[in-house]
């Protein structure tokens, strides 16, 4: 009995928290969330057009709005995660919302009275029964759809930083594992997406949409349940108030102190010291950029400073708080310079699937579904990510001395270069596809061309490699560079680049059509000038890379002043 009492009184639980074992739970929920979301996104046009009687234009617009909204709403999920909820609670709450959304879509797809009589493949004798969805049916559709968007946005915002929180940035050994975490996160996201565009898409085409949505609801529910099983292993973030409020305080106080002179000695600026510093994970060093914001940390020496409210958060800010604001400002040009790559991604996803419908998609007797074409780059990424992690990083580390092999901004830049190359390759492949159509007199034919769909694998493989560099680089960059109080928000900012890319994709097509006189105006790709459009995207990508180089060279990495107690804990 005494031995049992001794065992119970000396469990050393804190050292066992976090690490690879805890991060595994974040990998799983992030991967399954992407599996369901990606499978829905790539095939939703078919559901809208064939079962909800939307027009082709309405279907494409509805899908674009859904995808863009899901990524944009991650900012809201991140705000809740950083301000009120922990990452774990955010994942559970929004995961449950996502489960309800898929379940509602499954119910509508199952019961015919909840959707209109389908127009797809309807004989001419029954065309009079074909009608648009009524308000009630649309209400159910959009309720389910945007519950999914809200749910997946919260999971996307909180799951990646939840896994990253399991590694201590102040510990050199664990800090080296942080970059590897984002590489393996990308591996799980890619694996989930691959299952989505193959297994889940096959279910929707062969078993029905009700089964497809139901499977998504069930697997996401199991992922949330699995996440709760690891609760005792997590290092949970402590919410420190709204990061947006902290940023606003800096601007308000800096404006209020605009007429004050900055002290010659920067140590005279306000900063938390000694005992109070123990409650903060990091103290940021002052940088020289945006010096007008430093006025928010000026200790006032006039009569007002003697009052009790002179040191409130809206009257005086710390240097660390000012630097947090500067970091966000420095990040904005970086995220804007990656938007165009995601615009290219949206175009590639749309037009490549359309190209695939004109090509030979058979492998022996099996015909590859059009919605499963994105599996090509996903397969390449699943192969390349472990090679990058196990081969490239160790070799690069020997030359650069950087634990991650190359810096995050260098990694993002490589991805932007590859995206430009991908667009050029896409133009060459499309030119070849059109030449085959002309050679075989099949310009007006709906029959598949004698050209394998795997020709599209070249452009997809290169873009997949670009995505591996850029997306992982962005996630790692924003998480590492942001302060501890806005980790989820910074992760959501990287997702917002995808959202803007999806929203602007249709604008780019409209402008290109108008200026060119109708490169993409026909409903026949064999007559369109899609290859010209791809060359345009390649050229604009080069210009965008030049803009990125300016932004990256201007960016200053954050510097942390570690507390003595933190240094002792590392030793």
TrEMBL record:
SUPFAM superfamilies tied to this protein: MFS general substrate transporter
Alphabetical UniProt keywords: Membrane, Transmembrane, Transmembrane helix
Top-rank taxon: Eukaryota
Transmembrane segments: 21-50, 62-80, 92-111, 139-159, 180-203, 209-230, 327-348, 368-388, 409-429, 458-479, 491-512, 532-555
Keyword presence, Transmembrane: yes
Location within or outside the cell: Membrane
Keyword Electron transport in annotation: no
Membrane topology, from the record: Multi-pass membrane protein
Main subcellular location: membrane
Alphabetized PANTHER family for the sequence: OLIGOPEPTIDE TRANSPORTER-RELATED
Family: Belongs to the major facilitator superfamily. Phosphate:H(+) symporter (TC 2.A.1.9) family.
Protein name: Protein NRT1/ PTR FAMILY 4.5-like
Organism of origin: Solanum pennellii
Lineage: Eukaryota, Viridiplantae, Streptophyta, Embryophyta, Tracheophyta
